[in-house]
Amino acid sequence: MRRMLSLVLVILLLSSAMPLAVTPAAAYEMKIPCDDGDNILTKEELVNAILPYMLDEGEHSLDEIGDAAWVYAYWGGEPKKIVDTAGREVTFCRPVERVITREPDTARSVIAVGAGDKLVASEQATKSCLCPTTFETFGEGCLDCYYTILDGRMPDLPETSTRYDIYYELMASLRPDVIFTSSITNAADFETKVGVPCVVAEGSGWVFDYKDGVYGQIEVVGKALDKEDDAQELIDFIESKVNMVRSVTETLNESEKPTVYFAPRGAGKGFYDPKEGRDFTRTEPKYPPLDIAGGINVAKDEPGATINVGIEQIITWNPEYIFISCSDPDAVDDIDNIRNAAFLQSISAIQNDTVYNCFYPHCRGQPPDRNLFNMMYMAKLLHPDEFKDLDLEKEGNEIFEAFLGVDGVFTDYADYLIWPREYLDTQ
Amino acid sequence: MKMKVVALLLVSACLFLWATPVMAEEINVTRSFSTTSPSPNSEFNVMLTISDLNIGGIVETLPEGFSYVSTMHPSNQVSISGQKIAFAVINETEITYKVKAPSSGEGTFTGKWVDLLVLSPELEEGKERWETIADAMVVVKSATPTVATPTPTLATPKPVAATTPTTPPIPSPTPISTSDVPGFDAIFAVASLAIACLVVCRKRGGGNTKDV
């Protein structure tokens, strides 16, 4: 009998726990505030919420009435629907005032369209990737930027995910109105577990285009945040920089464009990284900043993206230039591993001493500011006469400011990394 | 000589206006009265001038002894509770309401307004967002006969709960009106002053022109 009772008790406990496990922490109400339920907010419904509120007799909060006023004024009184980059239709019943992003890249786009004040949490590396600083310690790098961006909130910005983990409960407790992610992988989980709309804003920061590129990401972020004009202005800015370089390099004959091997993951681990394949033998067959800069990527005909190649293949390609990405001042001499490697001495770039550091195109994503600047830097290295008047420091600061709203970031970045400062001093 | 000085003053006024940066228009609500010293038991108008508040709420509190009579504001956008009158603002730029003065005494009109088109990440927004309309004192004249000023007939507001949507649906408001472009007034002022300068100079016989 006692056993029977225990069993019933266990079943009862389990059945009460089941709904808790599947119910989102804070379900998003698919209803316009102050509306009677038909999701068409009329002037009368809005007025009938405002008047009692002003007389301290209303049932709605200022936040609800403000949201309703926004829906009435800007959305014609109806829910707003957008289509994200994954083709999903996302519906908003109130304006976005609190944002969480899954990655640094989406956080940067939110700030870049002028909605940084809405960012309430992001991924762990956002703190060191937006204003380039030392990961987790924040002891060196663009510290002025780190401490001033987001009105000084960056150091205390809640971290709701890492490279491997997502903290759904923490996300829900912060009561976001939307979650931006650059991958569809967890989109459904965000909506069911956190209970808010999730917008997929994909787009590589080194593809300066709408399709699969940063323009698409910026555009959809702008739409979700009612910042379409700011988004367009940013896209136009990027495009103007791309055109500035392209207008010069597209006039060059193919024979005037040198061949380049690009190592986007540096060269600090002895040519090959057995754990993640991230070292000198890792390359990107498609890296548009290099193409726009007037270089011929020796890996361009290789299928796919992000590949590892054999040392022999690099020797066979015999590039005229080698660009090795460097984002750490302690790794500045890694370039010598390549320059001094006995088995690479037959390569033209080694013989001509045209092996250079370049800017790291990754930071838990593909930061468009650094990649846009990489394009200019590579153009100046590959075609110094054509770009002799290009003021890289001025351009760099302008680019970072366009994305982060902080001046002088590139100057600090060049000083921190050392090698860019040494290069700039020779110009 | 006098004309020269006038012309010089006009030119420098033009230049000053030209060089002064155009200040961004600020959202604000101000109150004015048809009179601040009404006769006993007379009715007078209170005008609320609304700048750039596209959707918002206003609450006015009448001093004891003064009573609300009517308003030209849409009747379903007004609500009264005791001495408080609430107005819903949906793109209106002015609200006028009529008040009846007591037989004697004085009192201070107070008021608050709130802009409802402000997005904020704050979770608990409240009355800290409310702004104040400057207090204004009204003193009832001591009893002497006065000529009543004719005032237009105003609508009587209905209680909010009983409001029936009698107004036709209006198009979505356009919060930024091109006619409200900041600095437009300044441009007109500069143009007018420039024309005035020209007229003055012409009248002087064009001192700088050479006879040929």
Describe it for me?
The complex is a heterodimer of chains A (427) and B (212). Chain A has 18 helices and 13 strands. By secondary structure, chain A is α/β, with parallel strands linked by helices. Mean pLDDT of chain A is 94; it is low at 17-23. Chain B has 212 residues and is of the alpha+beta class. Chain B is globular and about 55 Å long. Chain A binds chain B through residues 42-44, 46-48, 50-55, 57, 61-63, 65-66, 69-70, 72-74, 76-77, 95-98, 117-118, 120, 175, and chain B through 54-59, 76-79, 81, 84, 86-88, 90, 112, 114, 116-121, 123-127, 129, 160-161, 163, 165, 167, 169-170, 172-173, 175.
Distance between the termini of chain A: 90 Å
Give the uncertain stretches of chain B in residue-range form.
14-23, 146-153, 155-189, 199-212
Number of E-state strands of chain A? 13
User: Which residues of chain A sit in consecutive blocks of at least 5 with pLDDT less than 50?
Assistant: 17-23
**Cα-based radius of gyration of chain B, to the nearest Å:** 24 Å
Q: Give the end-to-end Cα distance of chain B, rounded to a whole number of Å.
A: 24 Å
Oligomer: heterodimer
Strand order of the largest sheet of chain A: 5-4-3-6-7
Show the helix and strand layout.
The complex is a heterodimer of chains A (427) and B (212).
Chain A: H1 2-22, H2 43-54, H3 62-74, E1 80-83, E2 89-92, E3 99-101, H4 104-112, E4 119-123, H5 126-129, H6 143-148, E5 159-161, H7 168-173, E6 178-181, H8 187-194, E7 198-200, H9 214-224, H10 228-249, E8 259-263, E9 282-283, H11 288-292, E10 296-297, E11 307-308, H12 311-317, E12 321-326, H13 335-339, H14 348-351, E13 355-359, H15 368-382, H16 392-404, H17 409-417, H18 419-425
Parallel strand pairs in A: 3-4, 3-6, 4-5, 6-7, 8-10, 8-12, 12-13
Antiparallel strand pairs in A: 1-2, 9-11
Helix pairs in contact in A: 2-3, 4-9, 9-10, 10-15, 15-16, 17-18
Chain B: H1 2-19, E1 28-33, E2 43-51, E3 55-61, E4 67-71, E5 78-81, E6 84-90, E7 94-100, E8 106-115, E9 131-139, H2 184-203
Antiparallel strand pairs in B: 1-2, 2-7, 3-6, 3-8, 4-7, 5-6, 8-9
